Amino acid sequence: MSAQISNLPKGAHQAVTSLMEAAERIEAGAPTGEEAALRRRAREQFAALGLPTRRLEAWRYTDLAGALQGPLPPLSSAQDARPNKTIEEAIGLFRESAEQMCALAGSELSATIVFFDGRFSAQHSDLEKLPKSVRLRAGYAPLANGDIDNDMLGSLNLSLASDGFELVVDPDAGAQNFVHLLFLSAKKESCSMHSRAKVRLNKGASLKLLETHIHKNFVSGLQTHLTDVAVGEGAKLEYACIEYNNPQHISLARTEVRLEQEAQFSCTALGAGGKLVRHEYNILFEGGGAKAELGALSLAGAGETRDVNVLLHHKVPECLSDTLVKNVLTGDARGVFQGLVRVEPGAVRSNGRQTSKALLLGRDASMNAKPELEIFNDDVECAHGSAVGEIDRDALFYLRARGISENDARQLLIKAFLGDVLERIEDEALRINTESHAIRWMENVFAQTQEA
Amino acid sequence: MPPLAQQTVDTVERLRDERKKYDFFTDIESDKAPKGLNEDIIRFISAKKQEPEWLLEWRMRAYQRWLKMSEPDWARVAHPPIDYQDLYYYAAPKSNADRPKSLDEVDPELLRTYEKLGIPLAEQEILAGVAVDAVFDSVSVATTFKEKLREVGVIFSSFSEAVQEHPELVRRYLGSVVPYSDNFFATLNSAVFTDGSFVYIPEGVRCPMELSTYFRINEANTGQFERTLIIAEKDSYVSYLEGCTAPQRDENQLHAAVVELVALENAEIKYSTVQNWYPGDAEGKGGIYNFVTKRGDCRGDRSKISWTQVETGSAITWKYPSCILRGDDSVGEFYSIAIANNRQQIDSGTKMLHLGKNTSSRVISKGISAGRSSNCYRGLVSIHPKAESARNFTQCDSLLIGDATSAHTTPYIESKNPSALLEHEATTSRVSEEQLFYCRQRGIGEEEAVALIVNGFCREVLQKLPMEFAVEAQQLVGISLEGSIG
Which of A264, A374, A387, B104 could be stapled to A236 by a disulfide with Cβ–Cβ 3.0 to 4.6 Å? Predict the structure, then answer.
């Protein structure tokens, strides 16, 4: 064990030790020698790296070791997930509300795939509703022999991941309606979940994907989730991600996207709550003329930290990237944004836009933003902007002068602030669904402040 | 054009016509300490300067601290390791022993050097009322206009003179903005600094002229460690100009200066720099390494510190003029033009630390990269929890010329107060074919066209420079980009 790990504070040390022990068990129980070797390499890499400290540039604003408080044994198949009645109801409720919202938009759900406590639940999923050209294999972790050198999250996840899914869309095929991936958890004791997913769109394919993570009842847990997305030539992926977390929940996620020629990727993520939630997006342009739009909306309250990390890597000519990251922070919430647009020497006629905005509603809320540009050729157009502040007093006054109550005026302005990101969702069903979640969060916040 | 401006223009014209004339060095026998750095060298420097015991102790503390530090590696610059034991830490022109009383007594060799550089020392009195405290190889040689300044109570002298004549002021303010333990290069400077400038503006005084110092690096392998300290008392104002050139040398020269500014209540300090040290040849061989720590402390309420810089020289520029906005309603400004050509590397920016209420800061940075250079803006805007209603606006634009160059922007934006408003904008663009074609069509030569476009790009900053500098800087922008097209 590296010196880095043995020097950790007690809570983090217990957490890491429990994770490492579990990794050894998983490695010993690996079905093939190949997998065992892969797991071992990942485990050793993680042991060598330890937890990231704030001395690492990518983690300078987020203290992971400080957030971990005690052992986090991964949920194994032995502790089989058995949803109780309340959870059954919750699953039904979320599915129903998604369906309702689709109906409002004149669309419908093509299928819902449910993961409960980090496990695929065949019982609650309706895979049969998927069109034939969309092939989904759930209930296993698609381990890839990826590059995990110097990658804490990648190696930790690879050594422990036990569940997840793989989704492949055939060439020139697709689903008209969106596929819903629902992740729910309800563990009351400290534990962790580690999953991996792979999404592959072949040439000319298209897909709409909604991913919902509900961890409202997941107390003091850790979740790591890695998604590997490949969008083939001329293919189009529309992605929306919604997550709701318990204020004690810790989540580390990464979405790695590779775009081939003329591929299109749009992603809108809405995340609320969590003690420490960090989402990394690595978007790599590998074929010319590809386009990526990323919108991330983070909502956080007292004691919560949300960290969004974005890399847009323009390796080939004529690609377009557009990133919009917004934070709404109440109480003493902390928001972090680190974004980098890197344009390689050959990537001529690249276009990169990056905007980060934060609305600070709490007296002790804080925001740290670092929008970076790294440009290695002169034929590019890149820009970034960042703004941090409270609700515009002039706008508030304008509304108040028109007889709108302070409370309503504030809500209206916050809605407008959120709207920028949500408007980017092309599919109406997706947009309505996401919007309703954002508005519910905001109303909750207001209800709480009213009570207080 | 007023006659004074015309003279400046003429001087600059002469300068521009002969860029080659920067490529010389004067052969004056140096009075220098042996190579290397140890406690004895520091004692030697301190003794040479006849410094009081407390200053020697301060140097020693810095040196002990420095021994435990390591060179920072976060900046986007690459250079072979610097051997700190292979440098000279003290060199003074020999003629320093008996200081000249007037310009006539100055070593003619030295005067010729200035003349070649186009620094019209003899014309100072006519030229715009600028008093020059010229630093030649770390020791001030001539100071003019002292009398006039003394009349209003302004102290403008070399640092070593100030140590002798105003030890109480130096002791009170030295290291109060940049402590000796601040960073690797500032700490090194604290241990071995040889000279620099000292300015003290008494309460209520508006300094009657622009203060200016020309820095020159001459001796090969001589580390240049300047220390500048400017104190503006309540309700005072001063504008300070600093400009530099250096002759061609094959070996890299290290420059680690420290500049400290203190602005008390209602005071304003305007600090302008034109830096045109030798950038190395087209292959990047032989340029100056410039690792500078510049920081201003707006200590009093309603005080203001404004940094303006035009960085065109040096092989490596590592420089972040900063403002600590401590007093309520204090203002910090940073206007910068950074031009990198050939193999130059620039990692520069600013830090605006908002501590007081209603503090505001403005950052305008224009980076131009050409050839195979690398140009990085690195800035921090930090709003502390007590900085109610603080305000920041940052704009950093990059202009790229050529496909082998690179431009980077790394801003850190940290807000801990919701009532603060921070805005940051950055763009990256290039000198387009269309713009060039337009100029060429109108009979403007290619290089002139580039200079024209670039001057337009950085106009916002050029306008912030005092007039004499603005003209010079405009020419420099053009000269620096020679050979970047075609």
Answer: A264
B315: left (phi over 0), alpha (psi -120 to 50) or beta: alpha
Report, as an integer, the average pLDDT of A399-414.
92
Tell me the pLDDT tens digit for each residue of B172-206: 999 999 999 999 999 999 999 988 889 999 999 99
Using a CB–CB cutoff of 8 Å, tell me whether B404 touches chain A.
yes
Find out whether A51 and A4 touch, Cβ atoms under 8 Å.
Answer: yes
Chain A residue whose CA is closest to B74: A57
Rounded Cα distance between B25 and B23, Å, is: 7
Q: Are A408 and A443 in contact (CB under 8 A)?
A: no
Q: Which residues of A fall below an 8 Å CB-CB distance to B?
A: 57, 345, 348, 358, 360-390
Give the span between the Cα atoms of A117 and A191, in whole angstroms: 10
SS3 A146: coil
The length of chain A, given as a count of residues = 452
**C-beta atoms of A377 and B403 within 8 A:** yes
Residues from chain B contacting residue A387 (CB–CB below 8 Å): 421-424
CB contact under 8 A, A375 and B413: no
Phi-psi region of B41 (alpha: psi -120 to 50; beta: other; left: phi over 0): alpha
| Number of other CB atoms surrounding residue B170 within 10 Å | 24
Is B100 at the interface with chain A, CB within 8 A? Answer: no
| Nearest-Cα residue of chain B relative to residue A382 | B428
Domain ranges within chain B, ordered by starting residue:
101-479
ipTM over 0.90: no
CB contact under 8 A, B428 and A365: no
- Name the 3-class secondary structure at B82: coil
pTM of the model: 0.86
Spatial separation of the C-alpha atoms in residues A432 and A417, rounded to whole Å = 16
**Nearest 5°: phi and psi at A282?**
-115, 110
Residue A1 clears pLDDT 70, i.e. is over it: no
Phi-psi region of B476 (alpha: psi -120 to 50; beta: other; left: phi over 0): alpha
Placement of tokens 């269309």 in the chain: B434
B415/A381 touch (CB, cutoff 8 Å), yes or no: no
Instruction: Report the distance separating Cα B397 and Cα B400, nearest Å.
Output: 10
Cα–Cα distance, B220 to B286 (Å, whole number): 11
B82 is written with which tokens?
A: 């610097």
